[in-house]
Amino acid sequence: MTVNDYDVIVIGAGAGGLFTAARLAHRGYRTLVVERLDKVGGRASTTDVDGFKVNDGAIVIEVGGITEQTFDEVGATFDIREPQPPILYRIAGKDVDVTRGGWGLLLGKLTRQGAKLAKGIGAARHDSGLPEDELSTADWVRKYTKNEGVHGIFRNMCASVFAVGSEELPARVFLTYFTRKSAFKRFGFHPEGTIGVWRALAEAFIGHGGVLELSTEVTRINVADGAVTGVTLVRDGDERTVTAPVVVSDIGPFATVGLAGEDAFDEDYVSLVNKRNRPCAMLTINFAAQEPLLEAPGMLSFSSSRRLAYIANFTETCPEMAPAGWHLYVGTSVPEPAIGDFDEAAEIELLRADLRETIPGFDDKARILSTVITRDGWPPQRAVAGFDLPHTTDITGLWNVGDAVKEYANGGTTACAETAKLVVDEIVGQFPK
Question: Which superkingdom heads the taxonomic lineage of this protein's source (predicted)?
Answer without folding.
Answer: Bacteria
